[in-house]
Amino acid sequence: MSDFTKIAVDAMGGDGSPKKIIDGIIHSHKSDKKNFFKIFGSKIEIEHLIKDKLDKNFYEIIHTNNIVKSTDSPLEAAKRGKDTSMWLAIESVKKKETDIVISAGNTGALLVIAKLNLKMIENIDKPALSALWPNKKGMSVVLDLGANIECSSKNLVDFSIMGASLYKSLYPNETPNTALLNIGSEELKGNEIIKETFQILNDKKSDNFNFSGYIEGNEIMDGNVNVIVSDGFTGNVALKTAEGTANFITNELKKVFKRSVIGKISAILNYSNLNKFKKRLDPRLYNGAIFIGLDSPVVKSHGGTDFIGFSNSLNVCSKIVRGDLINKIRENI
Q1: Is 266 exposed, middle or buried (0-12, 13-18, 19+ CB in 10 A)?
Q2: Cβ proximity of 171 and 142 under 8 Å
Q3: CA atoms of 191 and 61, how far apart (whole Å)
Q4: Which domains are present in the chain?
Q5: What is the pLDDT at residue 274?
Q6: What single-letter DSSP state applies at residue 225?
Q7: Nearest to 132 by CA among 27, 251, 223
Q8: Which conformational region is residue 211 in: left (phi greater than 0), alpha (psi within -120 to 50 degrees), or beta?
Q9: Which tens digits make up the pLDDT trace of 146-194?
Q10: Order of strands across the sheet with 59-63?
């Protein structure tokens, strides 16, 4: 089992849990036999779902009596006790029993409990929430997506290094282009913090990434930049705008093709292209936000995703561990 990636799974978080979590584990195992799952939650429910579907050599169930509720505030979740599936899953990473932890549960609670249990990587002041976004040429890493509303220039420089390290751990053969999300591409644009960060990154020589200056919101999907850095306020607004736009486009297309006979015939004739388009915008492919800056990686799966989305998050977990993310950050910071 030493060659296995050991993933701690909070099986009780998110909609439709633990069924979708266990179904996601089973689905992920079909394509990757190198993961061992330490599953935290209701043993009776989990055993019923996993029995005869996954070999016992690939998982262990740790029974927990308590769960973090989706309605809990971060403080309530922390006070709920150390016997919750979320707390114990994170604690297993702290004790080095597992390599990485994943939960589809309450985001605020996950961030707070992770910070209570895990230390920061040396010389990093704040952790960041990052995620993968599709672009014309492949994928981009975007951070911070809401963990830090206000950031200093040092924080943004740290995020650049952490984001590039994450990209390198997922795509080891590529050196990413990194840029700061701003309201313009000219050096004079933006607030004092972002201009100061620009100067630091412009003067900094790094083997980890190429600094590409500023990027505007309408250029995020072009694919010329692989790591996009911002404070959590701006990043979260950009994320919600992108999600809303993608939903609007797919819903409007559905309406157009259902509206008339000609529309329905067009849909049939263009079925293959429409299917490719739908797959490209499928949020399940990009499910899994990564909380980085702590000395162990924490992955947040979307609470509303299905088992396919959760399975994709598990794939991200194994790539992060095998790509040696934490040591990459330590080396570059």
Answers
A1: middle
A2: no
A3: 50
A4: 1-124+293-333 (3.40.718.10), 126-286 (3.40.718.10)
A5: 58
A6: -
A7: 223
A8: beta
A9: 888 899 999 999 999 999 999 999 898 899 999 999 998 777 788 899 9
A10: 59-63, 35-41, 5-10, 100-103, 298-300, 289-292, 128-135, 138-143, 227-229, 177-181, 210-215
Q: Could you give the angle at the alpha carbon of 44 between the alpha carbons of 40 and 45, nearest 5°? A: 75
> Which burial class, exposed, middle or buried, applies to 165 when counting CB atoms under 10 A from its CB (0-12, 13-18, 19+)?
buried
Reported as type and span, the H/E element at residue 290 is strand 289-292
Contact 104, 14 (CB under 8 A): yes
Compute CA 168 distance to the chain's CA centroid, rounded to the nearest angstrom. 15
Structure tokens at 227: 């790591």
- pLDDT tens digits, 257-271: 677 777 677 666 665
Tokens 């993961």, residue located: 35
* Tokens at 57, concatenated: 């050599």
Angle formed by the axes of helices 261-269 and 232-259, nearest 10°: 110
**66 vs 41: CA distance, rounded Å:** 8
Q: Which two tokens stand for residue 13?
A: 């978080």
Structure tokens at 165: 């390290």
Q: Cα(6)–Cα(149) distance, rounded to whole angstroms?
A: 32
Query: Which residues fall within 8 angstroms of residue 95, CB to CB, at 6 or more apart?
Result: none
Percentage of the chain modeled with pLDDT above 70 = 92
Q: What is the DSSP letter of 132?
A: E
Q: How high is the pLDDT of residue 239?
A: 82
Confidence of residue 255 (pLDDT cuts 50, 70, 90): confident
Element (H, E) at 141: strand 138-143
Strand-pairing partners, residue 120, are 294
In degrees, rounded to 5, the angle at the alpha carbon of residue 299 between the alpha carbons of residues 69 and 26 is: 85
Quick: pLDDT tens for 88-112: 999 999 999 999 999 999 888 999 9
At residue 207, what is the residue type?
D
Q: Could you tell me which residues come within 8 angstroms of residue 235 by beta carbon, excluding any fewer than 6 positions away?
A: 129, 142, 143, 144, 145, 146, 181
**Token pair of 104, please?**
């589809």
